Amino acid sequence: RSSAASDVYKRQVSNVEGPQTIGNWKDSARSVMTISWKAPAASDGLTGYKVEVRVNRGEWVVKSEVPSDQLSIDFSKTDASGETSFRVSSVYSDGQEAVGNAFGFSGVFE
Predict the structure, then answer these.
(1) Is 59 a residue whose pLDDT tops 50?
(2) Are 41 and 56 a contacting pair, CB within 8 Å?
(3) CA–CA separation, 49 and 104 (whole Å)
(4) What digits encode the pLDDT tens for the residues 17-53?
(5) Are 49 and 16 in contact (CB under 8 A)?
(6) Which of 46, 68, 79, 90 has the fewest CB atoms within 10 Å of its CB?
(7) In angstroms, what is the C-alpha Rg of the chain?
(8) In Å, how far are 13, 14, 88, 92, 96 from 6, measured between CA atoms?
(9) What does the alpha-carbon distance between residue 35 and residue 23 come to, in Å, rounded to a whole number?
């Protein structure tokens, strides 16, 4: 006899890993930042990525959720003052998430 609980258990992803993420200026005027990442080695059950930002050391806010074949996203600089931190998490089919490295830049990005 199969129960819903045992079916969920069977589909649990055993290895999860956060992506390694970097930021690079897209333009010479430094108005657009491209956040890119490498797909994690733990790719079994990977369904996508969650991209979050934190402005001026506030709360982390989800800015985008993208499919597993998308490995970058652009943010426009909207204010030269302040600072913005970025992080990307791997999202797996069983609901697990693995947070990658966080990093920041001067300015506010949207």
Answers:
(1) yes
(2) no
(3) 18
(4) 999 999 999 999 999 999 999 999 999 999 999 999 9
(5) no
(6) 79
(7) 16
(8) 14, 15, 30, 18, 17
(9) 4
User: At 80, which amino acid appears?
Assistant: A
Cα angle: 14, vertex 15, 16; to 5 degrees: 125
Give just the sign of the alpha carbon dihedral 97, 75, 62, 70.
Answer: negative
Q: Say how far apart CA 76 and CA 95 lie, in whole Å.
A: 30
Tokens 């079994």 label which residue?
44
Is 26 in a helix, a strand, or coil?
A: coil
> Which run of H or of E encompasses 105?
strand 97-109
**What residue has token string 């970058």?**
72
Q: How far apart are CA 51 and CA 61, in angstroms?
A: 8
Q: What is the DSSP string of 28-94?
A: TTS-EEEEEEEPPS--TTEEEEEEEEEETT---EEEEEEETT--EEEEEEEEEEEEEEEEEEEEETT
